């Protein structure tokens, strides 16, 4: 029932990787520099969202240690969600209080690199990795101005330093995956990557979803799992 979507996610991710490498090759040949590299990791403190089929693909590939880290990460997240009133507060809390992605290993290397979602693949940095972990609210007006003026506006998602073309393509692929899920089940689920993986590992959500939108929402609600910002149903 799910294998078609899981396979499609893997195929689209592999295609996306090839597109990204082609873009990076063209950009660097033209004199540009990309600063992403193995172990840089600062972007891994961001709240990462994905579609449920992507999360399901990851959930089925985890080691016991990775599953334990997801469980611990989710417990910290749930304990802090009660005081979150809006998206801005959620994103700040996630970065400052929750910590890095549970899929990073002890050496700061992504443990699910081959299965990572579109949103992770799409985030390509044109600045040094310290900028990927920086709280811009701590900068002076002069520092903010210098940063903004340093950006290549033809390439980035201004006023940030990430490549616009890859982010737009990643969002389009997410939309396509959501549409495929809607065709099959009548609705889609999108949300926080570790949380969706947790819902599958601990609650076997993939067995509930085929029963329909109302049954799925009722299941999540009755079990205290229907959390704003963490799981977003759509139909």
Q: Can you put this structure into words, describing what you see?
A:
There is one protein chain. By secondary structure, the chain is mostly helical. The protein has helices at residues 3-29, 52-59, 64-80, 87-98, 118-122, 141-150, 164-185, 193-203, 205-208, 213-222, and strands spanning 49-51, 188-192, 231-234. Helix 1 (3-29) packs across helix 2 (52-59), helix 1 (3-29) packs antiparallel against helix 7 (164-185) and helix 3 (64-80) crosses helix 8. The longest helix is centred in the first third of the chain and has 27 residues, at 3-29. It is globular.
Quaternary state, please? single chain
Total number of beta strands = 3
| Total of DSSP H or I helical runs spanning 4+ residues | 10
Low-confidence stretches: none
**Mean pLDDT value:** 94
> Into which percent range does the helicity of residues fall?
40-55%
Strand content: 5-15%
The tally of structural domains comes to 1
Specify Rg, calculated over alpha carbons.
Answer: 18 Å
The structure class reads mainly alpha
Distance between the termini: 19 Å
Strand ordering within the main sheet: 1-2-3
**Helix and strand run:** HEHHHHHHEHHHE
Q: Major sheet, described briefly?
A: 3 strands, antiparallel
Shape estimate: globular
